[in-house]
Write a structure and sequence with these properties.
Blueprint: E1 2-3, H1 5-21, H2 25-52, E2 56-61, E3 65-67, E4 72-80, E5 89-95, E6 100-102, E7 110-113, H3 114-120, E8 123-131, E9 135-139, E10 141-147, E11 153-159, E12 163-168, H4 172-176, H5 178-186, E13 195-206, H6 218-224, E14 228-233, E15 239-245, E16 253-254, E17 257-258, H7 259-276, E18 280-286, E19 291-297, H8 301-309, H9 321-331, E20 337-342, H10 346-351, H11 356-362, E21 364-370, H12 373-380, H13 386-411, E22 415-419, H14 424-438
Parallel strand pairs: 3-12, 15-18, 15-20, 20-21, 21-22
Antiparallel strand pairs: 1-11, 2-4, 4-8, 5-7, 5-10, 6-8, 9-12, 10-11, 13-14, 16-17, 18-19
Amino acid sequence: MKSAPALFITALLWFFLGIGAYFSSTLSLIWLFASLILPVLLFLDALVLMLLTDKLSSERDIPGTLALGKSSPVRITIRPEGRGFISSSIQIFDLYPRSMNTAQPELMPVRLGSGSLKKSGAMVFEYALIPAERGKWEFSGIHFLLSSPLHFWRRKTVHKTISRGRTYPDFKKILGGQDLRGLLERTGLKSIRMRGQGLEFQGLREYQIGDPVKAIDWRATSRRLKPIIREYQEERDQQILLLIDSGYRLHRQEGDYTQFDSAISAAVLLSYVALKHEDSVALGVFGNGDHWLPPHKGISALSALINELYDLRSAPLPSSPFSALEQALTRLHRRSFIILISNFREEDGESLSWILPRIKRRHLLLTVSLREKEAEELARQKPGKTEDAYVKAAAHSYLYTRKQLYKTWEHLGIHTLETSAAGLSPALINSYLRIKRSGEL
């Protein structure tokens, strides 16, 4: 229990009254009376606060499954219990996890009066939280700051109103549909399922205006005496392996999240698209611990993949793309499309030179490297001093060697992709569908 501002103001008034009592007999009598009655009032006020005022119950309603970066409503219900005295002034602090940020900080603390609780029988208020990290979370309780009847004292009580749940990558793009369609439109693709040239023959049908002439089956046309075309569909039942670096390479912060967070979100969206295409998806994470999810097929496998990813975090630890690819070779038993997401540099050219030919013989590889904004900004800046010119030249040299590394890999038949963290999802989906339609698998 702590003193309230009213106690300080009362003590200050009592002090000045004592000064006035020195000069006036009337004020002296008032000061003496106040000196006798004030301790009794303070004691009784504190006694009521200690014994009678915590007559409240609390409930919290929040979804147990949240999406990273998406606002989620929190509802708190306060009810009086029994017939005891209720504090005339109540301040409420919800102890939400550190991994979340409130979208309305001005709402905390919430202030309630006993009159509103007695009239309505319950008080409900809502606010919004935005998860800033993936993983498990827990609310530790609700703090109540209760005022005594005369407002001389305050007492803090804690209600063990526990709520638990998980924050997943931004799955709402998949559930909502609209956001995902917009994402695919930014890649130049209008739908997830496409009809066109592919590897699997689907059947014959009559020619329609707008069909390509090269698709006409002249033998079937001569038999039926009308134009017939051969219809193809994309090859199904291919295997995709996503390898994601969780070490220092993707630990760089961009905006509110790390590059690793962007890679996880992109992996979830790409997995959804691949599973919709009836491909199987496997997952490997290396760097900050090794995680492996064997190939799964069918859209129901998406939940298993999200549960494997939701609580993984990057760390400033060394990581080895070479070791990740080497382990993938021992685990993959059929030709697969390997997508390796990391941040490649000049030294990776030598370290991976031993394994890339082996990968090329058995699988198809796409290396995905996230851009480094700092280096690009240094390369664009106008040097004002000699030191700035050296920094600009070093940044240009660094970016040039990265591009040369990608060209070397492309000459070996390795696909490469360099993109920003923000543009990773559409770029990755676009590359997957383009390579799938090309028939290289």
